[in-house]
Design goal:
Distance between the termini: 21 Å
Number of strands: 13
Strand content: 15-25%
Radius of gyration: 24 Å
Structural class: alpha/beta
Number of domains: 2
Helix content: 40-55%
Largest sheet: 7 strands, mixed
Number of helices: 18
Length: about 475
């Protein structure tokens, strides 16, 4: 094996293989199995390389893998932020691989298999708490189509998903590098196997044992065309008229709640007063709870807002988006309040689109014990799967269902286990709509909602310990 890895060309090829696997793992519609395997060839190459070469190999693999999102970043954030975001992620992968190599090549201790997952879980926690983009790019989202693997998030949060997936790759790489030449091989390889099987087993049992839940009929509609300025008002009136017809149609199909997208229109105070009356009348005529997203341009401030109307025409709640898109919404004022309202006895939470990237906000609603989240949204077409997945994972973490009405995206409904109940692509005029029986969550916090990122911060502590403890300094500087 060592002779095989002596050739630099072999190590470069391994890094490129990892890059190819990362390409399909880190994209906007990731492969869960590729995410398990992607780090393995790179780790093996790094174990057989010097520290400088290992870092270069990691940068190469990460650059190849992250290139899958370059055009998306360019469109959403512009060229400068595209370079910054990509460079930061490339450097993070270099850090993961270099630190893991330093420990694994310096010690035969059984716990070396946990270095890579501790680093990955720790950094995931730090990014989620301090990044202006929240959990965007978390490796946890790679597992959304492997539903048993994500159920652990209801107990330990998304960092636990990242930890387990990284543990799979780390154990495989260390086993191929060390074999039985490691202290306590049964513990070194048996404990990770137990943790991985236990995670998948817990998820399978949780999914299989899901109790029947009460349901409510929910309608979702989206028209991709924007209504606000500089769109001519006659076209705006046609779009609003179409929404009027869709809402009445959905009500006729039995919908009790109807959710419309984010920022359907941008309204000054006079226009807002008129539109509020019209939507209130629509809710009353249709006999539904109606949620619609609008931009409110007041003299004092501008807000990305949503209005929730009762079947009697009352304005039940006005929610202001708390996590605005940097740059694109730089002229808007963020909100600072959660809004929970009871509908037919069940508590529902209100957020808007990007809010669900932030696990802390999702957890606040979990602690408030909501049964479902109602989410107007507006995406960038290519990220429809990923944006839906972020909201779905918040639902798994905190035990609530998700109703997400996305323009240029999906009309998406999922239960508290992250299972898709209904999904349909949005469209331009005459628009898209669905009616579905929404399973309601139990309206009580999950362990994760109660205790937060305790596991994630333990990963941070473990990662710091790995960085500062002596014992592999010599090997890392060879």
């Amino acid at each position: 094996m060592n002779r095989f890895w002596k050739a630099r060309a072999t190590r470069v090829a391994a890094a490129l293989l990892s890059g190819a696997l990362l390409y399909v793992s880190l994209g906007l519609t990731p492969s869960w199995l590729a995410a398990w395997l992607a780090p393995v060839p790179l780790l093996l190459a790094a174990f057989h390389a010097g520290p400088r070469e290992a870092r270069l190999l990691a940068w190469l693999a990460a650059a190849v893998g992250l290139s899958s999102n370059l055009t998306y970043y360019w469109r959403v954030t512009g060229p400068v932020m595209t370079i910054v975001l990509t460079l930061l992620q490339v450097l993070l992968w270099g850090f993961f691989i270099a630190r893991t190599r330093a420990v694994v090549t310096a010690t035969r201790a059984w716990w070396a298999v946990f270095v890579f997952p501790l680093l990955a879980g720790g950094v995931d926690t730090l990014v989620a708490h301090f990044s202006p983009h929240g959990t965007w790019g978390s490796y946890a989202y790679t597992q959304m189509n492997a539903q048993p693997m994500i159920q652990i998030a209801s107990v330990l949060g998304a960092p636990a998903v990242v930890f387990v997936v990284a543990l799979i790759a780390s154990t495989l790489a260390v086993a191929l590098y060390r074999g039985r030449d490691i202290e306590r091989p049964i513990l070194a390889y048996g404990l990770p196997l137990l943790l991985v099987v236990g995670t998948a087993g817990y998820g399978a049992v949780r999914l299989h044992g899901a109790a029947p839940e009460s349901t409510v009929k929910v309608g979702i509609a989206a028209i991709d065309e924007y209504v606000g300025p500089p769109v001519p008002r006659d076209k705006a009136a046609a779009i609003w008229g179409r929404y009027d017809g869709i809402v009445r149609q959905l009500a006729g199909q039995g919908a009790r709640i109807v959710v419309l997208p984010e920022k359907i229109d941008a309204l000054d105070p006079a226009e807002a007063a008129v539109r509020e009356k019209k939507l209130a009348s629509l809710a009353k005529r249709s006999g539904v709870y109606l949620l619609a997203g609008v931009q409110l341009d007041t003299p004092a401030a501008r807000f990305n807002a949503s209005w929730l109307f009762a079947p009697d025409g009352r304005l039940m709640a006005e929610y202001h988006k708390q996590h605005l898109v940097p740059g694109l919404e730089g002229d808007l004022t963020p909100g600072n309040r959660c809004e929970v309202r009871a509908i037919d006895g069940a508590p529902y939470g209100l957020v808007i689109c990007r809010d669900m990237l932030f696990s802390a906000l999702g957890r606040r609603y979990g602690r408030l014990g909501v049964s479902a989240m109602l989410i107007p949204a507006w995406d960038f077409e290519r990220d429809a799967w990923m944006e839906s997945a972020t909201a779905m994972l918040r639902g798994v973490e905190n035990g609530y269902s998700i109703v997400r009405a996305g323009r240029n995206s999906y009309l998406n409904v999922s239960d508290r286990y992250g299972r898709i109940v209904a999904r349909k692509r949005s469209s331009g005029l005459p628009g898209s709509s669905i009616v579905v029986a929404l399973p309601l969550g139990p309206a009580r916090p999950t362990p994760y909602a109660r205790f937060g990122d305790v596991f994630g911060w333990l990963c941070v502590a473990g990662a710091l310990l790995i960085i500062v403890l002596p014992g592999w300094k010599r090997a890392s500087s060879d």
